[in-house]
Amino acid sequence: MDEPTTTGAGAPQRTRIVLAEVVRSRAHDRARAELTEQTHVGDALLRGLVRAQLALALRLSTVVAIGLGALPLLFAVAPATSTIKIVGISLPWLLLGVGAFPFLVAVGWAYVYLAERNEQDFTAVVRRPER
Amino acid sequence: MDNPYTVPAIVAVTLVTLAIGFYGLKLARTTSDFLVASRVVSPTWNAAAIGGEYLSAASFLGVAGLILKYGVDVLWYPVGFAAGYLALLLFVAAPLRRSGAFTLPDFCEVRLHSRGLRKLATAFVVFIGWLYLVPQLQGAGLTLTTVTGGPYELGALLVGAVVTANVALGGMRAITFVQAFQYWLKLTALAVPAMFLVLHWQADGRPPVTPPDGLTFPAATTVVVDHPATLTLPDGSTREVRAGEELTFQAGERVPHVSGVDTARGMDWLLPGNDAGGLFGTYSLILATFLGTMGLPHVLVRFYTNPNGAAARRTTLVVLALVGLFYFLPTLYGVLGRVYTPQLMMTGETDAVVLLLPSAVVGNGPLGQLLAALVAAGAFAAFLSSSSGLLTSVAGVVSTDVLAHASDRGPGQRGSVRDFRVAALVAGLVPVVLALNVASLDVSQVVGLAFAVAASSFCPLLVLGIWWRRLTDLGAAAGILVGGGAAVGAVLVTILGPPLKGSAAALIAQPAAWTVPLAFAVMVAVSLATRRRTPPDVGTTMLRLHAPESLRL
Predict the structure, then answer these.
(1) Does residue B401 form part of some domain?
(2) Which of B230, B424, B459, B523 has its CA 20 to 30 A from that of B172?
């Protein structure tokens, strides 16, 4: 094939250059294919991940719903709690004005940590399905 | 108020905003650069930018004003504004980024492939954006009147014009730098004066914020009552005052109550459970702010500039921390306002407390003037940054869904830079006109209504769209129309309608507690009734939303 193409005289022939062979285990390829092709196994794997992540999000929202959401009810049902003073500041002011923000960040931090662990577990299963 | 530093400070903030905008314009070379910052913004910058964009006039001025007026019950505003990011982190952040959607209408297209739903989402984005923009511009007007005595209209026009020009010329990349800069400016502008305020309060022998006999004036004060009212003096006697009458009070004199100005007094202010809507109002506010953040158009656009889902999650966590850090401060201003600027309780213009407090506490010497100028500059940063973010997102949907549709590219195609500029002009003009013509409510309350609409329309769409396979386009549309429509109706009645009384007032003033469950219920019910319309590729979409990037599928 040393005939020059019509678009450019003397244009170099196209060559396929492979920079690196992608080395993957067959098992890994199979699991990935099962995910992308939506086989029963792949579908079950994905549903498991979605369920785990949703359960985690719901669990942590319950923590917030109880930790913060119960406060108005508590102050309404037991007004005595709202007159407690700690270092000269009454409890509702301390809880809502100061305590709520570190609490929210702590819950958020826990979520990021646990959600990434769920994803690592999922990746591990997909990469080594035989285990 | 003749403070020689205020006007230069406001001008400096405005010029720096414009300068960073033009610097960004030089960097923006392609349409993709222009619209989404080429997705190369680092998480720290991005988090500061999200924080900067989010802390609007409502946070900077409004929260302190509400706390001054109503006390502990409105602490749910800052808590909810911050907690909204937690809900966003838990349910939306990573999957939304992986969906590749740039705006909410994009998400509708990716998940449910429905043109009609896309149009409906566009309408809601524009409504929420404008509802949120109007109080920003009104806050700007209030600030300019308070600190310079200039006309109210000028502030709204100035901020409207600067923001529209900046968005139209610089696009999103410019805005990212501007926003990040403005987060730190806003934090500094509240934190530095706050230190002086607390030191002065200590030096004054820690005057109590709820004295047993009622609030007293810390210094001789002249108050102008701008509407006819009945004054209830501390000894129980009453006195009629005409509109525009000047009242002078001596230092140590007790603050009378003015009829028609709704404030909480004494123990009502200190203890929870006394706000107008009662427990229902409190829970409604919690629901609106916790769930509304994820549906705000200017918040979602930012997530697209994260490189992947995991980064989106980490960015959100940093935002939550930055926003939480900021919200320690407005509470302090609101509380100290009781001691040092009690005259605001008579005029009802408590949104100005942040602006007036530094000179009221530190005095009118150079230090007090510098601190007052810093706070005014921070307030302008707040108006400029949130308005820019809102305008970018409203202009984004208008250019991709309205203008592109009008030309023959079809909806959903990324519009040209020219379309985006035209859209920015139109989207900027409308709220300016509205801000000049609609009576102003408390800044934070109007913003709270925008949260309620977002929570009753886009929150169910996002949460169900991301986690529930059986959502259909009809279900989503019905949920948005019924829940979001009910919230929009309640907002319009609150802003434009006559004052309401009784239990209906609470249902309308804080609608989220019934509109959010309604939206979810309708969305689920209609989706189940139309289950044949479930998109055939829902499995592929779910894989895209939830599979970690490390798999490289």
Answers:
(1) yes
(2) B459
